[in-house]
Fold these 3 entries.
Entry 1:
Amino acid sequence: MIDPANILRTHDLKHTKQRVRVLEEIALDTAAISQPELEKKLGKEIDRVTLYRILNTYEDKGILHRIMDMNGTANYAICSASCTEHHHHDEHVHFNCTTCSKIYCLEVNVPRIKMPQGFTATTVTSTAYGVCEKCNSSAVH
Amino acid sequence: MIDPANILRTHDLKHTKQRVRVLEEIALDTAAISQPELEKKLGKEIDRVTLYRILNTYEDKGILHRIMDMNGTANYAICSASCTEHHHHDEHVHFNCTTCSKIYCLEVNVPRIKMPQGFTATTVTSTAYGVCEKCNSSAVH
DNA sequence: ACTTTTTTGCAATGAAATTGCATTTACTAA
DNA sequence: TTAGTAAATGCAATTTCATTGCAAAAAAGT
């Protein structure tokens, strides 16, 4: 499990109950959580604006990474240890469930892709659309 | 080059000057064009709302595909011939230039990725971030 | 040219995100 | 422990972006 207090300390961020709550909430599920969902869950405790600001600083610091879904909605997941303030190592596959619309960060590396002449890639991300484990197993047989 | 009139005819869409203009504008560049850019270019001729509607019907019909960039902004590119009303064959690599922020559809297939147990993927997309051909060649040497 | 159906433009509405500022909270050092 | 200061939060206002309803205009067929 994650340790919010420790994460804040190692990133030189002040310890506030709002920041802790955001991390706790995101850590609850292995799937990424969308900004609207977060707002729904935390809206009573944390102001809308504050939530935006916390998510932004977390992204800047390399604590969370932001995954855009098909609708342009931001989803957030906790970064792996290799993410730093200056570079997100986000080169795994994002699985976008078309049933529950959750996004999972899969522990699968994105294969190397050969770029055409002139194009130099620094990062490659991959998104798969389909049905996730949970939705598959709860489907009618 | 593309033939707007023909595209509209084959998709059972009425021929209007606004629809033709949108297709013309998008066909100008090999790169995808963002909704805000389109709006800037066509805003004088076409109403904002009409533009939204045209882009939506084009997407529904499989004429354009929509690519979300990092900021959640929609970008549009003309679909390859294999796209149909019911399924977009969008399985090529999208190159997102971090300098000019244009998006290119590369003629490179998305590599096959093995999904973890329980996850079934129907579509996989791949996005590369880096510097495009044009920006590379215009860079200071 | 007339009629029907669809598309367009405008106004209004709704939703999402950002900014400025006063208040509150966390941290530091006495 | 407490005072001081730097930062974070909450609120109000604003801006930006997208959608809806409806009347007017335009397209296609007869």
Entry 2:
Amino acid sequence: MPGTLDPIDRHILRVLQRDGRISNVDLAREVGLSPSPCLRRVRLLEEAGIIDRYVAVLDPAKVGAGLTVFARVWFKTQDAEVTLRFGEAVRRFPEVMECYLTTGECDAVLRIVTTDLHSYWRFQADHLTRIPSVLSVKTDVPMETLKRSYELPLR
Amino acid sequence: MPGTLDPIDRHILRVLQRDGRISNVDLAREVGLSPSPCLRRVRLLEEAGIIDRYVAVLDPAKVGAGLTVFARVWFKTQDAEVTLRFGEAVRRFPEVMECYLTTGECDAVLRIVTTDLHSYWRFQADHLTRIPSVLSVKTDVPMETLKRSYELPLR
DNA sequence: CAAAAGTTTGGCATATTCTGCCATTCAGAG
DNA sequence: CTCTGAATGGCAGAATATGCCAAACTTTTG
């Protein structure tokens, strides 16, 4: 029903991806509309689920979540039962920010956030490797962040 | 300066990580304060950089960014010059959402967002592998998303 | 080409929220 | 117990959001 996004919609989305708390008045000025139709478009984008939600982005280092690591996981078996239980387990761990099942070299990729290497090691030893489905884990530890973006590219 | 976060600050951060556009009146009610001191705390958290920014989270599938892939990159050499140029290059690509230098098996890990496998393949062939520093790339393609969170764990 | 239907826009009135100020309350030190 | 500093709650004015309606625009239809 909301066929495609016109240039104004994309402009709105671009702005809101950079500043999710901009006032509707300023947003309207920025995209070249008056406040009324601008707010209406935002509401439609929300109702269509194109805008999923608004969130505050915290500085990881300042809230004790300074270390991001990527873990690649191999399962003992690949049946539905195993992956289902694995999914339930990782959803319970707040340290696991993202988790994907892959078809490549390994079975799952996780992005995990902790305070430091020691607390990551504890998480891996005490929780991650104790999930019954898990055969082994390989960890890539970033030394430096070259880029971290929250803006999806809009064609 | 802002020694530590007290329980009310953490409560505020937890709520704002779930709903970055909640009105200050509702936020105050939720954390058990009146609007005035609540707004004051939020402003202090912003000024301290603990709240970095507010963003709208879009549904990737609905804006033509439905495929997330992880790419592991090996460099030809590991000197500072090479990594610097690599960083500049990836920052220019909007498809690259995150990029970290690693000390493990590979030299860099990237999270890349595109429309579909075909457009990813084109991105890798036309852009990623053409960065002079890049020796080789291995890609893990997720089949399914088990978890995607935007809330950092707050101890 | 013209007329009609539907959609989008802009402006206005009202309700809600934000913002800054001040007196009061609370916690801790002397 | 008293003093001091910080945090809180309430209030008034300013800014913003919200809903409604007429006008302008776009698209379809005759």
Entry 3:
Amino acid sequence: MKECGAVNICLKSPQRGLQRGTGVKKWHLLHTALTRLQGSFAVAWALFWRHVASEMEKDKKTKQVKREKREAGSGGGTPGRVSKKVKSRGVKKSQGGDETYGEKEVKQEQVESSEFQVDDAARLQLGSKEEPADEDFVQEKRGKKRKRQKEDESGKGTSCSSEKAAAVKKKKRTDISAEAKTDKKKNEGKLKMPKKEESEKSVTKKKTKEEIEAARTLKRKLKEEEEQQRWRWWEEEKYEAGIKWKFLEHKGPYFPPEYNPLPENLNFYYNGEKLKLGLRAEEVALYFAQMLDHEYTTREVFRNNFFKDWRKEMTLEERMLITDLEKCDFGEYHNFHKQKVEERKNRTKEEKQVLKEANQKITDEYGFCMLDHHRERIGNFKIEPPGLFRGRGDHPKQGLLKKRIRPEDVIINCSKESHVPEPPAGHQWKEVRHDNTVTWLASWTDNVQGATKYVMLNANSKLKGEKDWEKYEVARQLKSRVDGIRAQYKDDLKSKQMGTRQRAVALYFIDKLALRAGNEKEEGETADTVGCCSLRVEHIMLHDSLDGEKCVVEFDFLGKDCIRYYNKVPVTKRVFKNLKLFMENKQPGDDLFDRLNTGMLNKHLSSLMPGLTAKVFRTYNASITLQQQLKELSNALLNQAEKLLSYNRANRAVAILCNHQRAPPKSFEQSMANLQAKIEGRKEQLTLAKAELKKAKKEAKGNSDTKLQFVVEKKKKAMQRCEEQLLKMEVQATDREENKEIALSTSKLNYLDPRISVAWCKNMEVQLDKIYNKTQRDKFAWAIHMTEKDFEF
DNA sequence: GCCGGAACTTAGGATGCTTAGC
DNA sequence: GCTAAGCATCCTAAGTTCCGGC
């Protein structure tokens, strides 16, 4: 679908998947670094990421200043939304009907339409040969970055206190374990065994090794048996539409233990005065005390919500007395909790084993069900315990009390002819139903959000697997239809109907940037996050020209889970012009797509292809990116480690595309510093080894003494070993750095057709367990069994 | 056609367990 | 044998989509 004379952004800056998320140049850089990987990639890669990180920081500051200016310009006040979503938006969105454009404008835009190009194949070519790699490293000054909102706030105190709390926590933990260590050493001194006993011990050790080997063999056998017993549902005929099962039997959910009152000697203090709380108030106070090390408890909203709900649990007397959270001292409760945590950590092997067995017993009893005469694992058979609601980001309900769920709140779903689970003694179920058109086993309503929670099957079950398979099949269907669909929305960009144009631009973003659909949300009920259809004017900035690119859209918004999406993307002139139009006469808080919602969008999509929704584009683009990246990055001549690295890089490209971020591990800086120190040490060793080799060579020169030649060989080997180890460490450091803020597992589990990975493993002769762990292999058993080498997504 | 709720998938953080390296 | 780091699993919040009722 290339068009003559087109200024094809995709061809200019190929590599579709990689482009998205962080912008074209960054992906040129990425490619450059990837290419260098074949040689000494480590340095290039580390430099690249360090560079990006520093640019992110710079850009963040610029962005903040800009935003403040914008806010001041739009009348100041809250940076948030101006318009209320949902009800008010309904009126706003349909206001005045759909506008039409004049013929003249349409004609003029038709001329520009040739600029529009979306070509997967072209975009997926990694990198551009036109731009020298080194230049890219220099050019990437303004950085295409993406950072967590959380981090933006890090300088504002709250996370500081959390860090402080964590540091204190860590120190105390270290102190306690140091004490334990000392005690242990003392005991060891006292209990030192006589030599005879020691030798007996070594015999025991030997036996243990044999036992270990036997256990391994047993494990292997069990694995084989398990494999044989696996229900190959994918080889069976499907039930008629809507029917999920024909027989379902289970034991009902497992309830958390009742509250165990605190010891009498523990006190709560109000305004410095000792106060004995009633059981209800004490329990809820403990929930708060348990979280004192967490940043949550420093947030005003969290504190206010907690206090409001806590007071509801108090007796009249308590309520009269306790009126200010600031005057509450939960210190003793908090210390008690910490002590319990420590005790848990310091359990002996035996204690741990007893506990493990007890848990296993619970799992065996409640963790499985019989579905159509097959034993299936339940995903979440435990009822959520009570506690304080941990809504993410600026959730208005964070801190509210999540109440204890009783059997009287729970609806059970099972077969009529099955043995209905017994409710716990003295209780009864809210309802028992026999609905085989749904997949859940039990459900209840959550008191905080009013949402229904479900007990469902594990990801490796038939019900989940079948749906997963179906999902990827729909995405594969899109592959053959996508050109037509793109042509259609390209045409729609010049429609006379405003709604149609908005739909086309939204689709362009969903397709090109893998944005989520973006449902409307009720204000005040959840954190202020958006997706494509719910974008507001304040979430984008238009640049006629930026960083040498024309028509650049700068996105900055909080998406699902309050993860920040930040990206600067060059778009076609037509998209750019439409965006300008959509933003005319609007306030920052107004909807960008005021004549569009996810319902309308999905309705349109399903008319283009059965089963097509906005979400399918994400699955399709993620999977196709993986497939193309694997083709690009790996070949059969690489060694195992290199092959795996290429797989991880392909996976990483998808994670970046889908904006799957994670908070850097708490110990990241320390662990990197440790690794760097090791690398330095190893470098010194290498220098020494080289010098020794040189010396040995000198001594052996002209001397036929075999001993001296042997020494040379020995030194040579030592040096090589040193080099290998150094390289390994550098690779590790690079990999760790790359993964610092990227979560790979989400895309692997939810977006990447497993058949692509299975086929890749077969073609590359890589063992599947190198890319999928046990759980993942279980989940994707259907794909593992049905995929051949020649599978194409 | 809109709305709200039900049903399901997707998501990152917390926690516990295992393994590598000293 | 110990410790730190990495990995797996658990947990549950937060999305998307579908569907029935008005």
